[in-house]
Design brief:
about 120 residues; mainly alpha; globular; disordered N terminus; DUF962 domain-containing protein; Mpo1-like; transmembrane; transmembrane helix; membrane
């Protein structure tokens, strides 16, 4: 599946994310769950901060950076979902695919395939 065709998605309604049998099927749904630009921006900010925390963890070997990275990543994302997108994060039902979706969307934002 090429992600180059992804633009700002429309709201998906009541789709159970557990029905997807592959990440390729899941990712378009994941994008529909991130239709709100503020939600996407918060995901992007949280992911960037998480990466910086990962670098700090490697440099300092201080395990608190791992916790900080997790709090930043999920905290920003959940504010985006509950406060702006008005939906429940798919990570509650498909944690691995959602984690993969976040980093795929992060890459696609950098590549200009998903707008923020």
């Amino acid at each position: 599946m090429s992600t180059s065709t992804h633009t700002t998605p429309q709201a998906s309604g009541a789709v159970d994310p557990r029905r997807f049998t592959s990440f390729a099927e899941f990712y378009p749904f994941y994008l529909t769950e991130h239709a709100n630009v503020t939600c996407r921006r918060l995901h992007f900010a949280g992911s960037t901060i998480s990466l910086l925390c990962l670098v700090a963890l490697v440099v300092t070997l201080n395990p608190w950076w791992l916790l900080a990275g997790l709090v930043a990543g999920y905290g920003f994302a959940w504010v985006g979902h509950f406060g702006f997108e008005k939906n429940k994060p798919a990570s509650f039902k498909r944690p691995l695919y959602s984690f993969m979706g976040d980093w795929t969307m992060y890459r696609d934002i950098w590549a200009g395939r998903v707008k923020i």
